[in-house]
């Protein structure tokens, strides 16, 4: 089943949460010179015009990236400012031109590629043929290779990597409920093959609560140093509908928990009165 297309949801609150956490991790990793391999198991198209037909259907960016964009105009931008200032600054850069209008939303391939140094490598997996064609059409550095393959199997195949450091983003669509268990098994595999890898796993907060199976499985598998960040837009409401976004981080860089708590405090202020964030060690060291 490959029905999901991220263009319908580009720039929504979950994207803001996921890409802000990803950006924070990258910023921390870049403090050291040593080479990094980045792997994005579910890449999507990489770059989304907000006026595109799919994105205009649901207009989810209007309750995600747009309020943040409006709350941080260029006049307030300071280099070396807060994480959210820096993130919105990058978002401006992603617009092209003078960056004064929000016309596009960049996906994880763009965020990862934007900070790629000459010594780093990036592998992007995308299984959907149409989405992969879009991804292939993006302008990315030559060190960013795009593979039309299953992302979790592909990740296993690439381990261990040749570089001293590894950073993985696992961001499935969870169209099949088995994906929660598959992600947990994959995280366990990565932890065995690359003990120091930094892994970011995104999961949706849905009324069925299946993300709990993923969280319980990795704890039961004995993994340590797992921190989670959850952004809730409102209380669970009815049987369907995503009410929040979760990120589980394996081996988060030191100090990241406080940086994210602070940034998400600013984000929730922009996203509305019902919005809240909770950061918590799921399993400590
Ligand atoms: N990571 C992207 C971002 O942040 O911009 C969004 C990814 S979207 C949530 C999930 C993507 O995974 C979709 O583009 C879908 O086509 C793709 N996909 C679904 N099953 C896959 C699989 N087994 N392997 C790789 N990609 C898959």
Automatic annotation (TrEMBL):
Catalysed reaction equations from the record: adenosine(2030) in 23S rRNA + S-adenosyl-L-methionine = N(6)-methyladenosine(2030) in 23S rRNA + S-adenosyl-L-homocysteine + H(+)
Enzyme Commission identifier(s): 2.1.1.266
GO molecular function, one term: 23S rRNA (adenine(2030)-N(6))-methyltransferase activity
Top-level division of the source organism's lineage: Bacteria
Annotated catalytic residues: 171
Residues annotated to bind S-adenosyl-L-methionine: 19, 42, 108, 126, 150-151, 171
A GO BP entry: rRNA base methylation
Annotated site (Interaction with substrate rRNA): 4
Listed InterPro entries: RlmJ (IPR007473), SAM-dependent_MTases_sf (IPR029063)
UniProt keyword terms in alphabetical order: Methyltransferase, RNA-binding, rRNA processing, S-adenosyl-L-methionine, Transferase
CC terms in the record's Gene Ontology section: cytosol
Purpose of the protein: Specifically methylates the adenine in position 2030 of 23S rRNA.
Family assignment from sequence similarity: Belongs to the RlmJ family.
Subunit structure, as described in the record: Monomer.
Name of this protein: Ribosomal RNA large subunit methyltransferase J
């Amino acid at each position: 089943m490959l029905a999901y297309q991220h263009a319908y949801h580009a720039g929504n609150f979950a994207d803001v949460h996921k890409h802000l956490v990803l950006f924070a991790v990258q910023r921390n990793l870049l403090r050291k010179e040593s080479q990094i391999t980045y792997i994005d198991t579910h890449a999507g198209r990489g770059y989304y015009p907000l006026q595109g037909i799919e994105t205009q259907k649901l207009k989810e960016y209007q309750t995600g990236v747009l309020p943040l964009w409006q709350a941080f105009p260029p006049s307030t931008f300071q280099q070396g400012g807060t994480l959210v200032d820096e993130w919105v600054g990058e978002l401006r850069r992603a617009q092209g031109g003078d960056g004064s209008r929000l016309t596009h939303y960049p996906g994880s391939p763009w965020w990862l590629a934007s900070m790629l140094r000459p010594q780093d490598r990036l592998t992007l997996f995308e299984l959907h043929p149409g989405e992969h064609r879009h991804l292939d059409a993006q302008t990315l550095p030559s060190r960013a290779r795009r593979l039309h393959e299953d992302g979790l199997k592909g990740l296993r195949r690439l381990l261990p990597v040749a570089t001293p450091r590894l950073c993985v983003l696992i961001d499935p669509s969870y169209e099949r409920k088995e994906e929660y268990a598959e992600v947990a098994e994959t995280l366990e595999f990565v932890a065995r093959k690359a003990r120091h890898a930094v892994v970011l796993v995104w999961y949706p907060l849905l009324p069925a609560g299946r993300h709990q199976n993923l969280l319980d499985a990795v704890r039961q598998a004995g993994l340590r140093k797992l921190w989670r960040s959850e952004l809730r837009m409102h209380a669970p409401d009815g049987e369907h509908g995503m009410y929040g976004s979760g990120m589980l981080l394996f081996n988060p860089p030191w100090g990241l928990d406080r940086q994210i708590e602070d940034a998400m405090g600013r984000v929730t202020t922009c996203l509305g009165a019902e919005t809240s964030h909770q950061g918590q060690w799921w399993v400590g060291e």
